């Protein structure tokens, strides 16, 4: 019995000091964060059913296909590799752009969601039932997420857990604030929920109007960046159709020139986009 207690105590102490003795490698933590970020981007883009490995495989196949097509049309190895790199990054850029567009569209409907929720609470419905009504009375773009919330709540009866799953489905900073407000009201209680939600709706409408105006004024910067990056490569592709130009670009100097041009294009594009982009809201309540 004494030996068993000693072994149990030793194992307990070992488990306590294990994180310090064998810390999780930084590389694994970074990979986990990257996978989580990719998963969140897919959800925000409306591609929640697509897994991260599937997305990576499709991107790799697209890169190989683009390289083969470009090398067939323009027999320049450097250009084929550059096309493969661009095709590999393109799905990530499209998902990010689609996620940003969906957040921009959702920014307009969130005040209406809050208004519907205030109306349901003021009519005397319980807070979970008020949230459930958004599956039928809310804006069209958010009904599927709230319908899934209704199914989760009916199955588990756990309001907090269902809110957490709803937050993961929506993956939106505004939704995070709204859901955490509802969670706090449910756990703490109080009669100020409708007043808080009205103030939130007013703030969201003002913020959406301001951001839309600023984005409209700065859209020319983004369009100029895209045109400035695409124009030299279109000219390069046209020049490479000539045999003497293709032979020149297939040399070591030509490969260095194409590689340097690709690097400069990426850096210049990122700078122009950073100048013309408004900082996006961060999700603080994950």
TrEMBL record:
Q: Per its record, how is this protein called by name?
A: Tight adherence protein B
Q: How does it sit in the membrane?
A: Multi-pass membrane protein
Asked if the Swiss-Prot or TrEMBL record annotates the protein with the keyword Transmembrane helix, the reply is: yes
**Cell compartments where the protein resides:** Cell membrane
Organism whose genome encodes this protein: Conyzicola lurida
The keyword Transmembrane helix is assigned to this record: yes
**Type II secretion system protein GspF domain: which residues?**
115-239
- Residue ranges the record marks as coiled coil: none
Q: Which residues form the signal peptide?
A: none
Question: What are the entry keywords?
Answer: Cell membrane, Membrane, Transmembrane, Transmembrane helix
Instruction: Using the UniProt record, give the first listed, main subcellular location.
Output: membrane
One Pfam family name from the record?
T2SSF
Q: Where are the transmembrane segments?
A: 61-94, 220-240, 252-276
Give the GO cellular component terms, alphabetically.
plasma membrane
Q: Which domain of life is it from?
A: Bacteria
